[in-house]
Specification:
The protein starts with a strand and ends in a 12-residue tail after the last helix. Strands 1-2 form a two-stranded antiparallel sheet. The protein is 48% helix and 4% strand. The protein has helices at 21-41, 47-54, 58-64, 71-77; strands at residues 4-5, 12-13. A hairpin with a 6-residue loop joins strand 1 and strand 2. The chain has one domain (25-89). The chain is mainly α and 89 residues long.
């Protein structure tokens, strides 16, 4: 059994991925919000602006941008990638 630390709340958990079960639903909602924002607005705004507009922390935006759903946008917009261990959904 391996302990993992939740990248959202900092609590330890034994489930796979970087998000604990308590944060998983909120993470899914925020990820959907971020996806919708990107579909409507692209990546023309800074992460600070996106965070302000969506209510999602810059820390979580940096994590979301590493997900496979945004690989094409990263290439098209030269976005920086930050390492993550995976997602819960």
């Amino acid at each position: 059994m391996e302990l993992n630390r939740c990248s959202r709340c900092g609590n330890f958990h034994i489930t796979e991925g970087d998000i604990c079960p308590k944060c998983c639903i909120k993470d899914g909602v925020e990820f959907s919000t971020f996806q919708s924002y990107v579909q409507e607005n692209g990546f023309k705004n800074s992460f600070n602006t996106i965070a302000h507009d969506t209510g999602i922390s810059v820390q979580n935006l940096n994590r979301f941008i590493t997900y496979p759903e945004f690989q094409d946008e990263q290439k098209d917009n030269d976005l920086e990638r930050y390492d993550t261990n995976g997602k819960c959904f």
